[in-house]
Amino acid sequence: MSAPPTATEIRAALEADAFIFYYQPKVSFLTGRITGGEALIRWRTPEGRIIPPAVFIQVAEDEGFISEITQRMFPRLLADYRIISTLTDGGGHVAFNVSAADLQHDTLVISIESALDRNEIPPDKLRLEVTEAAALSTSPSMREWVERLVKRGVDFAMDDFGTGYSSLDAIRQLPFATLKVDQGMVREMQTSERAAMLVHANVSLAQVLGMEAVAEGIETESIYRALMHSGCREGQGYWMSRPLPLDDYLALVQSGRTWPASHAGLLRSVLMSHVVELRRVMDWVYSARTMGPMPTTPDAVQQLTPLGERRRIAFSAWYEGAGQALRGQPAFESMRVPNEILNETYAAIQAEAARDTSPGELAPLLKKLSHYAVVLIGDLLRLESELLLEEMKR
Ligand code: C2E
Ligand code: MG
Ligand code: MG
Question: How far is CA 279 from CA 169, 366, 369, 374, in A?
Fold first, then answer.
């Protein structure tokens, strides 16, 4: 097929069930294990040829019937998920690509909700990757549909972040949990300093917004290792595995194969969130001093201190969670007391703020906060170098 297929040919293929999914594994940089797979559509011709999506997805987008494909493929995804979860001990998540056009009406949202209601897939095993996000003209109802799914525990990722198709505006409008860094940028990391810096800037951007970064298009081990240390959570690419037919994907997951792993990247993200939280409290007191009284309505206090909004300090969430894997590391052990003091001090500041205390009266608490925050920054950096030195020896 040299000319692009026509809408009629694509629709006929849909009717004939000629579309299937290949799955490409995503690997956690923290554990080196497969966390799940992205479902990537393929057209299987009667002669057994496999046609990649670049050829027909664009036609469907342009001719306005992409949603017919999505609607047809969602049940297929559920059927594949059932096999994956049965044969791979619970299995990982499945990521489903949806087009911006699929969110202009509620058909897909309703299908997903009823699949969740029927327990066909647990919400935390389904991720939706939105492509062509720049085409999103977000309406209040679209936001409501997306939020409805997010409330039920389904995560949205913005695909190809950093290309013309996805924009800052879209992450402002919709509650994405994940940014998928554009693969063009990832592939150029090795040859272009600028591309490498852009990847790191996007990872930081995700971090500041409380989102996760995922990288795709990893074709070499050295790019894998650079991303593993960057603060990205997961990676995907030909170096680990190409997209595979379902059976081959199952065999790969069942093999228990692992890739390099490191806690150093997570440390970098924790360091960043820790600094951002500290700055937010400082900025708040600063603006109160220069712009008038501090906002002390319960809402404002909730929003302005890290304890209020998420009820969890980023540092402590890590220390008490994933960080526990590092017990026994000297730098980790020295964080116990400063972590306790950090929690107490944030809580004290929050309590004082709710009592309408003046910035001057808060000064001793702020001093204590920054002292221990800085102690922890030192510990985090020390821990990072301990880990990197160990990795180099391996
Ligand atoms: P995507 O969602 O960004 O998917 C990643 C694409 O990058 C896949 O191409 C994958 O095979 C390719 N890829 C992954 N790792 C590497 C690598 O290391 N090097 C290189 N060169 N490529 C890599 P694929 O399967 O051809 O899909 C292309 C695009 O088609 C997808 O990009 C997605 O936008 C769209 N697509 C695929 N399946 C669906 C679907 O079910 N629905 C919709 N609406 N779009 C889909
Ligand atoms: Mg995708
Ligand atoms: Mg992509």
Answer: 24, 11, 11, 12
